[in-house]
Write a structure and sequence with these properties.
Elements (H helix, E strand, L loop, with lengths): L1 E8 L3 E9 L2 H4 L2 H16 L5 H6 L1 E2 L2 E5 H12 L3 E10 L4
Antiparallel strand pairs: 1-2, 2-5, 3-4
Length: about 100
């Protein structure tokens, strides 16, 4: 099951994120949706260009935790694997 989350910040930065998990039920859970929202904010605030770069970053809401650690915590809570499939970050100032 694929889930898309989007974010736009003052028409300057936009993010599209695709997450993958096992079931549609997982994507309807508040914890999953909050993770997706947190991840698009993380992407908007940072400069990661690939999922590999992103998961190595410190989590913006808790500097003691990495992005991969946060994904792991939510994955264990929901008892479902969660994977960042891909994302794109648009920056209007970089054109």
């Amino acid at each position: 099951m694929r889930y898309i989350e989007s974010y736009a910040h003052k028409s300057k930065v936009g993010v599209l994120l695709e997450l993958e998990t096992d079931t549609e039920l997982t994507t309807s859970r508040d914890e999953f949706r909050q993770l997706a929202r947190d991840l698009v904010l993380q992407i908007a605030a940072g400069k990661a260009k690939t999922p590999g770069e992103l998961i190595e970053q410190g989590f913006i809401k808790d500097s003691k935790q990495s992005v991969s650690g946060r994904i792991y915590v939510v994955s264990m809570l929901l008892n479902a694997p969660i994977r960042i499939t891909r994302f794109v970050r648009y920056d209007a100032d970089s054109t």
